[in-house]
Design brief:
It is a single chain. The protein has 169 residues and is of the alpha/beta class. The radius of gyration is 16 Å and the shape is globular. Helix 2 (38-54) packs parallel to helix 5 (130-146) and helix 3 packs across helix 5. It has one domain (7-168). The chain has helices at 12-17, 38-54, 81-93, 109-116, 130-146, 152-162, and strands at residues 7-11, 24-27, 60-71, 74-79, 102-105, 163-168.
């Protein structure tokens, strides 16, 4: 007998902001450090903006997220850590503050601390994950380069509601 996987398309809003009971997405130690560079972050932001321009009501799929439920609302990220972290970084660069679901790194204090303090950029404290800090800087730059200030709210809304990730848990 075959068991079907529980595949669910979730918007970025559903992933990070909509929650009756806040979730924690925990990146385990066996996952590599955050490594997206300027080209990858810029390409993602540009692709989302192109999708918005072509069809403002359409859905843009960003890939998959595979998690394993570790406990009460704690989900270990098995696959999709780079995307999940990039989405979080872009949310912060867009000025989204009311993120109810948490992203953390289980065994990397500098990474966990940097993610927590992105609202205070550039003052990220003494323990800083350079990959995450640079990712934020690249996201800000790409948003400023490609998204007109008058279009920022429209882009933010599209990013939150029309960008989806396929979630498996």
């Amino acid at each position: 007998m075959y068991k079907t996987l529980p595949l669910v398309g979730r918007s970025i809003y559903q992933l990070y902001l909509e929650s009756c009971e806040p979730k924690t997405y925990m990146i385990p130690v066996y996952q590599r450090n955050y490594a997206w560079e300027e080209d990858e972050i810029t390409a993602l932001i540009k692709d989302v903006d192109d999708s918005l321009a072509k069809n403002p009501e359409g859905t843009y799929y960003i890939g998959t997220l595979v998690t394993y439920r570790r406990g009460d609302n704690v989900y270990e990220v098995i696959d999709g850590q780079q995307r999940l972290t990039t989405i979080y970084i872009i949310l912060k660069a867009l000025g989204v503050k009311a993120i109810s679901n948490k992203l953390t790194y289980g065994a990397r204090r500098a990474s966990a601390s940097t993610i927590q303090k992105l609202d205070n950029y550039p003052d990220l404290g003494e323990e800083v994950d350079n990959g995450i800090r640079n990712g934020y800087k690249y996201a800000e730059k790409a948003l400023n380069d490609f998204i007109d200030s008058g279009k920022r709210d429209e882009f933010r809304s599209y990013f939150l509601n029309n960008v989806h990730i396929i979630s498996v848990h």
